[in-house]
Design brief:
alpha/beta; Rossmann fold; 7-stranded mixed sheet
Length: 459
């Protein structure tokens, strides 16, 4: 059985006793703007030039020890376009982590609370440390320095990264934009695990977004819808607000491009009055088909702006549809909001586009969970798996391609515990696509999760 729970489970209160000391040290270093490496995070081994290459089985799924790791290396096919780009490989790489612990404004006890921001980041950091341990076993030598990006003086921390071979983070949009420019000026790749935006930087081949864009999420839904349903079955949902209308227009453009048509509207559009969701007898005006499946796309994604609207739209649809067959496509908020319940998932046959999927019954995941528990006396949350997957991807990419690893990422696909990385260059000039035209690099892999038999599975 495979599943993706919609909420994190409470964790053992003693889970991060081994990390609390680190966080206390880190806040002192952050407040003083220290550039000193945190010993707790350092991985230093004798220099090694051995490339860690997973063993491949007939199904293409490779393993290093107990870790699920699929690699597709297409660099030979790509050599002609990057033949003048020399690999800059080293025995050891310097890694700077600009993690948003926010310790100056947090209670240290929140590290044990997975619903707090510090708790989530502590989970993420714990996963990172698990990956560093695994990389060490693979003889991939990293010297890691950890900074709290949201405490103390950020500029001094950024200057402390001047010798880094890669910078990971930060989360704050303004800090990330500054860091991306710093990476460009100093030829240091900057990896953004948490934010995705086309406005962070421009003409920057050193900036790597691991989170697919909102537009990519919407395009993925359209692609899946069109593979499984006819256009006349599909309704776009939204409010008569500029943001919602903009999302509808983009989705219609994607659908028209797939159809290779010049139509303005491929799908039907239905505008929902928010007041009718709460006070009205009906909000959907009996639009449900009785003789075929009604397919709805709800592209709203923001917890700040959309959570109440999304919940009420789902709740009202679930009540109004009656016995008619309905499929609802939506963004990760459908899975991550505390307001939406399992009966909504089932009643609306939800399809959710998401960056991650975790099969908790898989043997490798069970072994990771056991190893995590042995280290931290608690059960890993999704953030722990995310931190692990990110650090393994960056560490192995450095080892495979050296300091200029970002140029080779679109020759290299990988899959770990809950995330797949399929990074592509985004070009400013779609015709030339030379190295000089790279705007940034972005992971484009997304899953469509379908609710079946009381749990989510990959569709």
């Amino acid at each position: 059985m495979t599943s993706v729970p919609n909420h994190q489970r409470p964790l053992n209160g003693s889970k991060f006793l081994t990390l609390i000391g680190f966080l206390c040290i880190l806040i002192l270093a952050s407040c003083n703007g220290s550039k000193k490496a945190i010993d707790d995070a350092r991985v230093a081994r004798p220099s090694s030039t051995r490339k860690a290459t997973p063993r491949q089985n007939k199904g293409g799924i490779g393993k290093v020890d107990t870790i699920r790791w699929t690699e597709i290396d297409r660099s030979k096919e790509y050599e002609k376009t990057i033949e003048d780009l020399e690999l800059d490989k080293r025995g050891q790489y310097q890694v700077a982590l600009l993690y948003p612990f926010g310790l100056e404004n947090s209670n240290i006890s929140d590290a044990n609370n997975p619903k707090s921001r510090l708790g989530r980041m502590t989970d993420y950091y714990a996963g990172t440390k698990m990956a560093l341990k695994q990389l060490e076993q693979e003889e991939i030598s990293l010297d890691v320095r950890v900074y709290d990006s949201e405490s103390g003086n950020f500029d001094s921390k950024l200057q402390g990264c001047r010798n880094a071979d890669v910078i990971i983070g930060p989360m704050d949009r303004g800090q990330l934009s500054t860091t991306a420019q710093y990476g460009l000026n100093n030829e240091i790749p900057v990896v953004s695990p948490w934010l995705s935006s086309t406005k962070v930087t421009k003409n920057n081949p050193y900036y790597i977004q691991l989170k697919p864009s909102l537009k990519r999420h919407m395009a993925k839904m359209v692609e899946h819808v069109k593979e499984n349903y006819s256009d006349e079955q599909v309704f776009l949902l939204g409010r008569k607000k500029r943001k919602d209308q903009g999302m509808m227009k983009y989705i219609q453009n994607v659908a028209a491009a797939i159809n290779r048509s010049g139509k303005d509207k491929t799908f039907q559009e239905f505008y929902i009055e928010e007041d009718s969701l709460i006070n009205g007898e009906m909000a959907y005006d009996s639009i449900f088909y009785t003789d075929k499946t009604s397919v709805f796309i709800l592209p709203n994604w923001s917890f700040v702006d959309d959570e109440s609207f999304v919940y009420n739209a789902v709740r009202k649809m679930s009540g109004e549809k009656g016995l008619n067959d309905v499929v609802l496509y939506g963004m990760p908020i459908l899975l991550e909001s505390d307001k939406i319940k399992f009966e909504h998932y089932s009643n609306l046959n939800m399809r959710i586009v998401r960056t991650s999927y975790l099969d908790r019954e898989e043997e490798a995941v069970r072994e990771f969970r056991k190893s995590f528990f042995d280290s931290y006396q608690g059960i890993p949350s999704e953030e722990a798996y995310r931190g692990f997957d990110m650090m393994m991807f960056v560490g192995r990419s450095l080892n495979a391609y050296g300091k200029k690893f970002q140029y080779f990422l679109d020759t290299y696909e990988s899959s770990l515990y809950q995330t797949e990385f399929d990074v592509h260059k985004v070009f400013s000039d779609s015709e030339n696509q030379s190295l000089n035209d790279i705007e940034y690099l972005q992971n484009e892999h997304l899953y469509i999760l379908e609710f079946k038999d009381n749990h989510f599975v990959r569709n």
